[in-house]
Amino acid sequence: MLLDCLIPRDLSPASQNEGSTLLHNLFMQIHLERRVARSLGWRGFLPSNAGKFSWTMRLANSDLVYGIVFDGEEYDDEAIASTCSLYAFPVEDTTLSYLTEDMKALYENDAHIPKIRELSKYVEEFEDFRVGTLSLIFRRDKEGFNLSMRTAKRNPRFTERPMRPARMLSALFAALYHSFAEVFKTEGRLHVLKSRAAPDRNNYFIEAEFGLSVFEDEEEDTGSDFISLKAPPLSYRPDEIDLAEQPLIHILCGFLGSGKTTFLQNWLNFLHTRERFTGVIQNEFGDIDLDTALIGDETCVEALNDGCVCCSLSDSLRPGILRLIESTPADQMILETTGLANPDNVVHSLEELSDICKIGLVVSVADAPNLISHPEYLGDKLRKAQIERADVLVISKADLVCDDSLEGLVHSLRAMNKKALTVISANGNANFAALDHFFNLWIDKKYGLFTSRKHNPGEDTMLLSNAGFAMKPGASVYETCSVMLGEPVELDQIETIIRQSGRKIFRAKGIVDVREKGCCEVQYTDGMLTVSEAREDLLACDRWLTIIGKGLKPQAGSTAIRKQKCL
Questions:
Q1: Which stretches make up the CobW/HypB/UreG nucleotide-binding domain (predicted)?
Q2: Cα angle at 46 between 177 and 244, to 5 degrees?
Q3: Spatial distance between the Cα atoms of 355 and 314, rounded to a whole number of angstroms
Q4: What is the pTM of this model?
């Protein structure tokens, strides 16, 4: 039966609202397959049962936030008819200017955002934004379904063409139609009403039927004609990224100790709570996979330990990506590079793997306390490359600096990269919804307008190196070693061990048993040592302290000192 894919049981309208069940199951089924959802134009949806059932959503081919509120249903022995109110909320500056003054008043502060998310609680307040009606009518035998939308062609509250109700809602109806066609595995019969009668000339009515007809044909002349359509107006046309089988790989970079792994943990939590499972590839500049352990057990992680990722990516990354593709259904991955990696080179190297992946966002983490205390670091070649190449700039540890200093840093970073999204992060948390929205806008720009797409082939010295040519003079050489700490140590011993390891230490991290504290996670950056209680799942890790710097000295119980070049 046609509706079994959405309601695999007998219909019982007397005990529950079958229309809301049908619509909710449609949204859930479509959005569980992210690639399918993207190809249909969906860019996120949020259900709410505060009051009546409601759903809010974004679409790729619209600047509006849409709302659907379930109003109720009627039924008889043959069919069930459900009715929903349709809302359209402008959120971009170009469309906000079209609103009346009373409607603009609802946007004066951010309070309207949670209200829209729980739309059914505030239907009276948002009455001016209700611009149409959606009907779902289906046979009790589940063999036929009718989807229709009624709205006005023009509305006196909206004088501009983009804000005409029929135009605003057409993209939503098209997405619903194609979604039902996807789950039913059949195209519907589409009709739009062309009214000849004067009172109905401003009405817009479109319907789609799937399976057996729900209504008996009416031969009475009502002064209107139904015109058949092949597809709904404003149907979304998927681009190459929507249809690509290869996963997107986001590049996460940032100098040593900037807080990349903490930010990554919280970003993954955000994605996974929305059932967007993401694979991770980590480049640990050393022998010990500490960052891989810190991510936890819920994420598939591939670790690359062959030195700096930007120097060996093409050879070592391909099998890791293929293993992730085989082991997880993720349609996106995050490559967390070592703090010594130049994202420019990483982007160029990923271009060589275009047969198995696509390049996503370049996200750079900038350490706020470090850059505020040492503004001269902004002129450092590597840090400058990480900032200028970013699509998203994450300013980390914002909770450790004052507002005025933070504002000055933001101004400086934006001067270096005007096109990147700036995200403020405190304690590793950030506005991941804003990052997600930016990603949706980014991917809908046809994969070509953002910072990480700009490339001067003449600067790609890494490709010359891979081809057998010598690295250009001045390429940085970093050293790494790991010190085994089999016995518990005093807290002050840890910093002594780090400082005695070489003449210039950039970074140290590890899992160490500290007397009177137990198993601890140790981080050392820019002369600052932090020690925190280790998670329970890290207790089984070996006790190592990995040190990165220049001029390192061998110590008892340490691995061999490795020298790595990083362009």
A1: 249-420
A2: 60
A3: 12
A4: 0.63
User: Parallel, antiparallel, or unpaired: how do β-strands 279-283 and 332-336 relate?
Assistant: parallel
Angle between helices 403-416 and 381-388 (to 10 degrees): 80
Other beta carbons within 10 angstroms of residue 224's beta carbon come to 13
Which residue, chain included where needed, has tokens 């190459």?
240
> What tokens does 396 get?
């980390």
Q: What confidence tens digit (pLDDT) does each residue in 384-417 have?
A: 999 999 999 999 999 899 989 999 999 999 999 9
- β-pairing verdict for 476-484 and 562-566: antiparallel
Question: What is the C-alpha separation between 247 and 47, in angstroms, rounded?
Answer: 27
Chain-centre distance for alpha carbon 439: 6
CA pair distance 129, 105, nearest whole angstrom? 13
Task: Tell me the per-residue pLDDT of 131-152, one tens digit each, with 9 for 90 and over.
Answer: 999 999 999 999 999 999 999 8
Beta pairing, strands 203-211 & 189-195? antiparallel
Tell me how far apart the alpha carbons of residues 538 and 520 are, in angstroms, rounded to a whole number: 9
Radius of gyration of the chain, Cα coordinates, nearest whole angstrom: 28
Q: Which of 391, 276, 222 is nearest to 37 (CA)?
A: 276
Question: Are 368 and 406 a contacting pair, CB within 8 Å?
Answer: yes
Q: What is the pLDDT of residues 12-59, one digit of tens each?
A: 888 878 999 999 999 999 987 777 888 899 988 888 887 789 999 989
Nearest one of 480, 479, 534 to 512, comparing CA atoms: 534
Closest by CA position to 255, among listed 167, 366, 117 = 366
- Domains, the chain, with CATH or none: 2-229 (no CATH), 246-466 (3.40.50.300), 476-566 (no CATH)
Q: How far is CA 186 from CA 33, 138, 175, 229, 534, in A?
A: 18, 16, 15, 15, 54
Kindly report, residue by residue over 321-340, the tens digit of the pLDDT. 888 777 766 678 898 887 77
For the segment 390-399, what is each residue's pLDDT rounded down to a tens digit? 999 999 999 8
Question: Cβ(102)–Cβ(134) under 8 Å?
Answer: no
Q: How confident is the model at residue 454 (pLDDT cuts 50, 70, 90)?
A: low
